[in-house]
Specification:
This protein is α/β, with parallel strands linked by helices. The protein has a single domain, classed as P-loop containing nucleotide triphosphate hydrolases (Rossmann fold, 3-Layer(aba) Sandwich), CATH 3.40.50. Strands 6-9-10-3-11-12 form a six-stranded mixed sheet. A four-stranded antiparallel sheet has the order 2-1-4-5, with helices on one face. The longest helix has 17 residues. The C terminus is likely disordered.
């Protein structure tokens, strides 16, 4: 279980709180989708959970262990996985090497190809490609997601995994989330505006102005999200493709 209590965060050059006294938990095997308008603090909250940003107040616990003071590597070793909305690039590193590092050891060519195929890439064409500017944003996004899928985690954090990928790749991604969710071996937190991902959630959390505007089961929240044409930027189709 991941448990966040009274998390707050303010940027150095801003007086307002980007994250304002947020508390919630994610149960083992649960899928929580976080949604809300642009600027509501969704990505910042995910970075606080992973230790990329340091919260001003509050605490984060993973399976009863206080991980508030742990850095990114330590949280990863504790069982947390993270996929950036805009993945970093690593000039000189091949896709195969990156997947092997993410898996915690050497991966066979078949294992690498399975991971890449699972996110909609023609696998063998990418194994020896460098993770640099020669890859498009959509390609980088799918490779980033594959690195998270390369090893088991207690909880995986995905920041808008649908952004910048085509509809076919998005359908492959949905299948991956369905598999993880069905097996209930890992908890998942996803930032998303897409109906397909939102409808997979066990619970949905709405953020607005750095605060929780609502949290509840899919049935409680989803119908409101998509009534009257939708709100909070939510959409029924992958409009960014």
């Amino acid at each position: 279980m991941l448990k966040a209590e009274h998390l707050s965060f303010s940027a150095k050059d801003e007086e307002r709180k980007i994250i304002d006294d947020i508390s919630f938990c994610v149960n083992p095997g649960e899928m929580l989708v976080i949604t809300g308008p642009n600027g509501s603090g969704k990505s910042t909250l995910m970075k606080l959970l992973m230790g990329i940003e340091k919260n001003d107040n509050g605490s984060i616990n993973l399976d009863g262990e206080d991980i508030t003071g742990l850095n990114i590597d330590e949280r990863a070793n504790a069982g947390m996985g993270y996929a950036f909305q805009q993945p970093p690039r690593f000039k000189g590193m091949t896709v195969r090497r990156l997947l092997s590092i993410a898996a915690g050891g050497g991966l066979s060519e078949n294992n690498c190809c399975d991971l890449l195929s699972g996110v909609g890439l023609c696998a063998r064409e990418y194994l020896n490609r460098q993770v640099d500017d020669t890859l498009s944003g959509g390609e980088m996004k799918r490779i980033e997601i594959a690195t998270v899928l390369a090893r088991p985690h207690k909880i995986c954090l995905f920041d808008e995994p649908e952004a910048g990928i085509d509809l076919w790749s998005f359908s492959m991604l949905v299948k991956q989330f369905e598999k993880i969710h069905r097996e209930k071996k890992e908890s998942i937190i996803v930032i998303s505006h897409q109906e397909k991902l939102i409808n997979m959630a066990d619970r949905i959390m709405l953020l607005k102005d750095g605060k929780i505007a609502g949290i509840g089961s899919r049935d409680e929240i989803a119908s409101e999200l998509f009534s009257n044409g939708g709100f909070f930027g939510c959409s029924k189709t992958n409009e960014e493709s």
